Amino acid sequence: MSEHLLPVICCESIVIIAWVLSLLTLLSMLVIQLERLAALEVMSVNNYTQSQKELIAAEQSLIECEQHLSNITVLASTTCDIQSAGKNLWLISSKSKPSLEILIFLDEKNNITTRLNWRQKFE
């Protein structure tokens, strides 16, 4: 009986070892996928943060141009494109990316600007 028991134990132990190795392989693949997913998430957060900073910078340049619209000579080295749209209406576009555009009504008597519209310009 012991003659047949040794090969059976040997075969069973080989199957168990193969099963354990396959589990370890699956776990290592899971770890690799989790690392990739974490790297993608970090890249996504960095891109989101950078885009948000660029959007805020573009909005700040529009605000500066809007505040000095009545005195365009102050804006000699401007970061905006300013175009007249007629009847005290002005289109102000940021030169930086992302490109933003606002439509402004300028009350020339009181030097008050009113933002009528805002949009992102796509190329």
Word description of this protein:
The protein has 123 residues and is an alpha+beta fold. The protein is 54% helix and 26% strand. It is built from 1 helix and 4 strands. The chain has one helix at 2-67; strands at residues 80-86, 89-94, 99-107, 112-121. Strands 1-2-3-4 form a 4-stranded antiparallel β-sheet. A hairpin with a 4-residue loop joins β2 and β3 (99-107). The mean pLDDT is 86.
Structure, briefly:
The chain has 123 residues and is an alpha+beta fold.
β-strand amount? 25-35%
Secondary structure: helix percent: 40-55%
End-to-end Cα distance, whole Å, is 83 Å
Low-confidence stretches: none
Q: What's the tally of helices?
A: 1
What structural category arises from helix and sheet content? alpha+beta
SSE order: HEEEE
**Radius of gyration based on Cα positions:** 33 Å
Keywords:
alpha+beta; 1 helix; rod-shaped; 4-stranded antiparallel sheet; 123 residues; single chain
List the topology elements.
Elements: H1 2-67, E1 80-86, E2 89-94, E3 99-107, E4 112-121
Antiparallel strand pairs: 1-2, 2-3, 3-4
